[in-house]
UniProtKB/TrEMBL annotation:
<dbReference type="Pfam" id="PF08281">
    <property type="entry name" value="Sigma70_r4_2"/>
</dbReference>
<dbReference type="InterPro" id="IPR013324">
    <property type="entry name" value="RNA_pol_sigma_r3/r4-like"/>
</dbReference>
<protein>
    <submittedName>
        <fullName>Sigma-70 family RNA polymerase sigma factor</fullName>
    </submittedName>
</protein>
<comment type="similarity">
    <text>Belongs to the sigma-70 factor family. ECF subfamily.</text>
</comment>
<dbReference type="InterPro" id="IPR007627">
    <property type="entry name" value="RNA_pol_sigma70_r2"/>
</dbReference>
<dbReference type="InterPro" id="IPR013325">
    <property type="entry name" value="RNA_pol_sigma_r2"/>
</dbReference>
<dbReference type="Pfam" id="PF04542">
    <property type="entry name" value="Sigma70_r2"/>
</dbReference>
<keyword id="KW-0804">Transcription</keyword>
<feature type="domain" description="RNA polymerase sigma factor 70 region 4 type 2">
    <location>
        <begin position="83"/>
        <end position="134"/>
    </location>
</feature>
<dbReference type="GO" id="GO:0003677">
    <property type="term" value="F:DNA binding"/>
</dbReference>
<keyword id="KW-0731">Sigma factor</keyword>
<feature type="domain" description="RNA polymerase sigma-70 region 2">
    <location>
        <begin position="2"/>
        <end position="54"/>
    </location>
</feature>
<dbReference type="InterPro" id="IPR036388">
    <property type="entry name" value="WH-like_DNA-bd_sf"/>
</dbReference>
<dbReference type="GO" id="GO:0016987">
    <property type="term" value="F:sigma factor activity"/>
</dbReference>
<dbReference type="InterPro" id="IPR039425">
    <property type="entry name" value="RNA_pol_sigma-70-like"/>
</dbReference>
<dbReference type="InterPro" id="IPR013249">
    <property type="entry name" value="RNA_pol_sigma70_r4_t2"/>
</dbReference>
<dbReference type="InterPro" id="IPR014284">
    <property type="entry name" value="RNA_pol_sigma-70_dom"/>
</dbReference>
Amino acid sequence: MKIVKDEFARQEVVQEVFIKVWLHRDKLESVENLGAWLRKITINQSLLALQRQQANDKRLETIQLRQTSTDHTSTLELKEIRRLVHEAIESLPLQRKTIYRLNRVEGKTTREIAEQLQLSHGYVRNALSAALAAIRERLTASGLFILFLLLHR
């Protein structure tokens, strides 16, 4: 415990020492000072545990740095997609914009929208398809359409 300073690591070291003793049990008769031999194995296993812990800490730090970088990039890409979608929606003709918002923002079905706006169901479906096509076209032109699809499943 003086070396590893962690209960879990201490338990691991003790287990490894027992394994070493078991694997080398045939050599125990030739060991002159059993206490010193056990102490040496314990110290070596403790140092190995510290090295493993240090390597794990380094890997974890690298992963956290990558995650932070990815999160930042994703946030920027998401903001850009939202901006482009907003611009595409705002550039739609008024009726398509209304149909799109009723469907995508308020969650209404095309039948409900048709009833509310007193339009045919077919017209509403076509207008919604045209609105989505315009948004898709705008995002494809900017190269962010695939990200849009992944984020809006």
